[in-house]
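Cont'd.
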Amino acid sequence: DTGVSQNPRHKITKRGQNVTFRCDPISEHNRLYWYRQTLGQGPEFLTYFQNEAQLEKSRLLSDRFSAERPKGSFSTLEIQRTEQGDSAMYLCASSFQGISGSYNSPLHFGNGTRLTVT
Amino acid sequence: AQKITQTQPGMFVQEKEAVTLDCTYDTSDPSYGLFWYKQPSSGEMIFLIYQGSYDQQNATEGRYSLNFQKARKSANLVISASQLGDSAMYFCAMREGQRARQLTFGSGTQLTVLP
């Protein structure tokens, strides 16, 4: 079990540039989540995938943000025309959810990508 | 309304003593799960313990236990025999409903263990 892997660990970009982050979930996990965390706050939900389908998006996910999970394995989160308010830690998590549905499966988080927009 | 409320921004505890971190939640769904995570300064979120709304017993995992009071909608985390390595941010989170989607997190409690 290699855990959830996120790349890069840190990204510094200038305002207006586009950035893309990658997440590799735990291999047998069918659900993948993206969260954003600012300093001193808890993670805020952005979006999640069940296999390759994006099933839910938070209103926090403006049209500058797009996420994909093309083959139901790794996922990418792209932010276009970055703004200083996008500076945050972006966390990816994965879990396994059976057909019957279960609310007891924990999310397993990666180490995050810290984005700084200058 | 806040779904998860953690009213203690910071807590201190002496090494080897027990400490309780508070968490209250708000939901009208009878089916839900409550989770606690630890986030050290290195940043990774570590799952600690889970309690289901229908569980009759309080959850325990090693030195962690959950004081679940359903009528009060509280799910406090108890850490026994605190260690210096327990110093971290602790988050309470909830997943609501049978369809079991994302976790909603509280704002966290920064725990510092004193030698």
